[in-house]
Amino acid sequence: MKHCPSSLRFVRYLLIVVFFSFAQQLFALEAKYNMTSGVTDISGQVYNLHMIIFYICCAIAAIVFGLMFWSILHHRKSKGAAPAQFHGSLKIEIIWTAIPVLILIAMAIPASKTLIAMEDTSEADLTVLITGSQWKWHYKYLEYPIEFYSLLATPREAINNQAEKTDLYLRDVDKPLVLPTGKKIRFLVTADDVIHSWWVPAFAVKKDANPGFINETWTKVDKPGIYRGQCAELCGKDHAFMPIVVDVRSPEDFDQWVAQELERQAQEKAAELARGNLTMDELMSLGQKTYETHCAACHQISGEGLPGVIPALKGSIMATTDIPAHIQIVVNGKAGTAMQAFAKQLTNSELAAVITYERNAWGNNTGELVQAADIAAVKAGE
Amino acid sequence: MKIDHERYYVPEQSVWPIVGAISLFTIGIGAALLVNDLAKDQHGAGGYLLIIGLALLCYMLFGWFKNVIDESMAGLYSSQMDRSFRQGMSWFIFSEVMFFGAFFGALFYARIISVPWLDGAGNNVMTGEILWPDFEAIWPLEKTPGGLETNAMPWEGIPLYNTLILLASSITLQIAHIGIENNKHTQLGFFMMLTIVLGVLFLSLQGYEYMHAYNDLGLRLDSGVYGNTFFLLTGFHGLHVTLGTLFLLIIFLRILIKGHFTPERHFGFQAAAWYWHFVDVVWLNLFVFVYVL
Amino acid sequence: MSRENISSHQQHADHSHDSHDHKPRGISRWLFTTNHKDIGTLYLLFSLLMLFTGGILAMMIRAELFQPGLQFVDPHFFNQLTTVHGLVMVFGAVMPAFVGLANWMIPLMIGAPDMALPRMNNWSFWILPFAFTILLSTFFMEGGAPAAGWTFYAPLSTTYSSDSTAFFVFSVHLMGISSIMGAMNVIVTIFNLRAPGMTWMKLPLFVWTWLITAFLLIAVMPVLAGVVTMVLTDKYFGTSFFDAAGGGDPVMFQHIFWFFGHPEVYIMILPAFGIVSSIIPTFARKPLFGYESMVIATASIALLSFIVWAHHMFTTGMPVAAELFFMYATMLIAVPTGVKVFNWVATMWRGAMTFEVPMMFALAFIVLFTIGGLSGLMLAIVPADFQYHDTYFVVAHFHYVLVTGAVFGIISGVYYWIPKWTGVMYSEKIGQLHFWCSIISVNMLFFPMHFVGLAGMPRRIPDYALQFADMNAFISIGGFLFGLSQLIFVWMVVRCMRGKGEKATDRVWEGAQGLEWEVPSPAPYHTFQTPPQVK
Ligand code: HEA
Ligand code: HEA
Ligand code: CUA
Ligand SMILES: [Cu+2]
Question: Which residues form the Cytochrome oxidase subunit I profile domain (chain C) (predicted)?
């Protein structure tokens, strides 16, 4: 090596540079086009498992295709090959039955271990009840009186190509799930309407949210950060638009967040109580905002619904006649249909506003006002 | 292997298959429209289309079987052909078994898995605790997790009688079969008629039981998964008994009026008999798993 | 087991009857026919039409996915496209194509005069166009076509579906009736109409694989009928099979559906195995390696297929024991499938190969199907499936096994047998062009799907995050190219049907073995009216 000519040294240098820049590219590519190794012990195991099976499959493919292409190249008629006439051998059949069995056993052992670890939800430090519904997630901390909905934050205009798409296009929500690091967190997953699936790749957690049943899964994250995922089971029209964001913080920061959250809730409640009756304009503007985030996905901005699937509100009997019946259906939903109960999703004033809005928008000009007190009355009458 | 050298009869062109396809098309559209209308309390063309389709189907079956019977009587069929029919019928019955299998599967799933899970069994502790705290898993499911109440159908009484009736009908049919094989026409005629009467009796009692369920027990098709499986299983079974009875009736009329079938060649009779025994076996399973256990 | 010494002394007697070989004329020939060749042709043409229908839906899917953001269709319509694309391809393109091939080839291969139940055969076919008319007409109804995926999971397909659900349900019933009758016909033909001397272990593998497929069909199509019936009653008659409030379970739907669904995917591959097992020996000029083990492997795959269904449901929250069981059972299927692949390679080994178009597609089948099978094996590993499930990795897997597996198998069979059907050779130039265009574009189309899937792109979405954009554009271009390449295929088929091209010999291929090559090309309207003697 001592006396290699400078030109060769140059080539060597070049090769090293190329190699490293290539490797870097490879890592970048890997992040973009391979499964993530995630941020938990389990997700790392899953990643390793994935890579092991992948390499085994590559090896099998290389051998099988190698032999095949060898004979394609060499055993061709144009090369004057004369066909052999053998047509079977029990010994060889047994060999190529047995070897795959051994390979499969070798794959199954680590897979079983990881699986059993993944399904062990015992001894959790914190439990979160996750409920999917069309098309949002609801999080409820069983240890704290905290619960909230988490909705897509990407504006409709971006989706419709009328506004710039940012980096977080379709991946951001208004209120992320906040979790502490270093704690075993148990997730209870269920749904209100159809099946959804709660998936955060970085935790290797994907669990179906089945209406009427609760599935359990867990994670333990050591690295603070913001982790993103999305609904992974076709759940209707806006299945693509119900992302998941998990904000993992140190336990101290988490406690602080809990305190803040409780305070904010108390303030909101007080404000709600203090609010009293609203004017038509106030109701309409709050109502429009509420309608667009909670109702428009189905009933459409135009209030026209989807013929044959979702009834129209524009000009509908329900939104133009009997008020208590209208309140009733928004508050309690309608069993056996896609109409969900909004009682626990919206405050009384939001409910009042949205009902007022529905009774006065799109030419439903009933001129009627609904106030929070009316909602409370219907709820109490139950 | 000599028979294999007989010429296998390949029928000339036939209009019946396409008529059959059109009838199924009409039935499909008619039923789909009807079902939507019923759900919305509307009236539309669905019901009429359905009836037209069914009529067309009957017409097709009548014409098709007439062709087959004529060909058979004309001696066009070899014993190889006979085997094709027999094998065809056996596989058809196998497919029916699998159809009932789907509904029995649903029944077992509900009884062994979903109902206990809703009460917190298996890995669903939280399901019971958080979602359905008041629910208790008891089969028959007289109170659903959603709170709907109903009453189970006891097995004593009509279901038991019906079991005996169907068992008896299988025996009478077997006696009729022995009749045909020994060319004893009165034995054949009498026992076939008896079988048909038993079939009709079964159906009438089943109808009575349904009325009892709806009027007195509050057991309905929509009374939760117990009512669902009860009515769909017994309902599809009843439908098969109806078809089986009609099938037997037609064979009976062919024997009575046309004097068809010989001790050696009676595939039509045989097929109807297989079908009847199959329906009988389904009932025994029903009786055990839907009513008794 | 050598199939060379099949005597054809009865053939000449047969041909002399050909004077009465009059075909009925006009449309009534096709409407009322009882001829297995006519019915086979009808099935094959129908399947081509459906391939294009499903293909056009796929092109719309790819156009929408070309860029992030909503471009052409709204999300609800996108779901309809995906759903109907899957249904049309599975029930309209692949299954009828196989039945068509069975109709044409099984009687020729076993020396039978026709299918066992010729009138029912015609009925099976003619139900299909009506069934698909109903299904496709739902696009024009209020609320649109079914939109819950081809797997129509409840309750999205029940409480939350549109009014067209009933039409969908009844059209599936019709398809089921059609396939069950078609399968009965195949089984009975094989059991009962084999020529004297055509013993079980002399049957060509295409016949064997179809026999086993037909058994699977009769076993699982009624289960599909049952589950769609439950969907119907849940939606319209207030039952609660799939509703927890009534004691049911949405996951129960998935169990019943996949009990049908998994055998269904083998229904779509076993006949292709049979086709490839016929083609490889012909062009390697060497008998198939391990005939008996091929039969045993096919039967094992079919039996195993009944106990693996829940591998589609690993994320539904089954108990660990069930997950482990279904993982092991699923992995086991790799063994008999591997035996098949190894046998094919061993058949080529030390053969004298030539590479006409059927062989090219068969070789592509082996490589690309194996890739699809290996990704299937990765999906079977439960912890990894938690990451793969419902992403484009799954979409990549099943298009490899379905498009480059089942569809390539069908295409290679068409090239292989079309000289026998039409009496003219296809143009080798056009065929090779079709092959090379297809093989390049199909990999552009489906290979990158593995990567976007691993990187986290879910399936069944009309819009996606920006990091998937470049790959999706590339995939879409591959898709359009693959679509266009199939026009070459149609060109080839039309040319042959119009009798353009070199006249084909009776044996067609130098290495071809079997009864189907003993009859003239094109095969006369009636063949083997007196059974040939197979020695
Ligand atoms: C023709 C159709 C076909 C075929 C043949 C297969 C074959 C296989 N499939 Fe696939 N599959 C589908 C069609 C098919 N599949 C479809 C349509 C879906 C999606 C449905 C939906 O959700 O819409 C699906 C989904 C699917 C899933 C669910 C994924 C998910 O949703 O999360 C799984 C999981 O286990 C799976 C596994 C397998 C396996 C193990 C095989 C095996 O049979 C493959 C066996 C073959 C090999 C392994 C290669 C050859 C073998 C060797 C060279 C021997 C040596 C090998 C080893 C020792 C490893 N498939
Ligand atoms: C055998 C079955 C089969 C076949 C052959 C195909 C063929 C194709 N499939 Fe299909 N696919 C499925 C079965 C099949 N698919 C199933 C079961 C699903 C799941 C559905 C679900 O999630 O419910 C699915 C889902 C599916 C998706 C995922 C959709 C989603 O998750 O939202 C996509 C996306 O790219 C896709 C694309 C394609 C393409 C581009 C082809 C191409 O190979 C098609 C090529 C053919 C043509 C294009 C037709 C011929 C040419 C013309 C018509 C000429 C005109 C051409 C141009 C204008 C270019 N398929
Ligand atoms: Cu929620 Cu998809
Ligand atoms: Cu499967």
Answer: 30-535
User: Contacts by C386-389 with C-beta closer than 8 Å and gap 24+?
Assistant: C386/A46, C386/A118, C386/A204, C386/A205, C386/A206, C386/C314, C386/C315, C387/A35, C387/A46, C387/A50, C387/A201, C387/A204, C387/A206, C387/C454, C388/C453, C388/C454, C389/A197, C389/A206, C389/A232, C389/C314, C389/C315
Quote the Cα angle for A190-A171-C463, to 5°. Answer: 95
CATH topology classification for C8-18+27-517 = Cytochrome C Oxidase; Chain A (1.20.210)
* Chain segment B237-283, per-residue pLDDT in tens: 999 999 999 999 999 998 888 877 888 888 889 999 999 999 999 99
Torsion sign over Cα B204, B207, B211, B217: positive
> Three-class SS of residue A8?
helix
Chain C residues inside the 8 Å CB shell of A210: 244, 249-251, 316-317
- pLDDT digits over C82-116, tens only? 999 999 999 999 999 999 999 999 999 999 999 99
Task: Please give the helix or strand (H or E) that residue C262 lies within, else none.
Answer: helix C250-267
Which amino acid is residue A382, in one-letter code? E
Preceding amide of A135 cis, omega within 30: yes
Q: Which chain B residues touch C240 with a CB distance below 8 Å?
A: 144, 222, 224-225, 228
- Pick the closest to residue B249 from B197, B188, B203, B207 (CA basis): B197
* Mean pLDDT, residues C269-284 taken together: 96
Residue in A with minimal Cα distance to C467: A32
Higher pLDDT, B11 or A222: A222
Catalytic residues of C: 85, 114, 150, 178-179, 262, 264, 266, 277, 311-312, 337, 340, 459
| Residue of C22, C28, C42, C127 to mutate when probing chain B, most B C-beta within 10 A | C127
Domain ranges of chain C: 8-18+27-517
pLDDT of residue A314 exceeding 90 = no
Name which residue leads in pLDDT, B1 or C372: C372
User: Which of C67, C82, C451 should be mutated for ligand 2, with most atoms under 8 A from CB?
Assistant: C82
Kindly tell me if the per-residue pLDDT of B222 is higher than 80.
yes
Residue B190 Cα, gap to closest chain C Cα (Å): 33
Q: How much is the mean pLDDT over chain C?
A: 93
The residue among A288 and A15 whose pLDDT is bigger is: A288
Alpha helices in C333-427 (DSSP H): 334-348, 357-380, 382-388, 392-401, 408-422
Q: Length of chain C in residues, anyone? A: 535
Distance between first and last Cα of chain C: 10
> Parallel, antiparallel, or unpaired: how do β-strands A225-230 and A146-150 relate?
unpaired
Percent of chain A with pLDDT over 70: 93
Computed over every residue of chain A, the mean pLDDT equals: 88
* Per-residue pLDDT tens digits for A186-197: 999 999 999 999
Cα distance between residue C31 and residue C28, in whole Å:
5
Separation in Å, CA C16 to CA A146, A243, C20, C312, C528: 89, 73, 9, 56, 12
Cβ neighbors of A354 (< 8 A, separation 6 or more) are A286, A287, A290, A291, A294, A295, A330, A346
3-state helix, strand, coil in chain A (%, to 5): 45, 15, 35
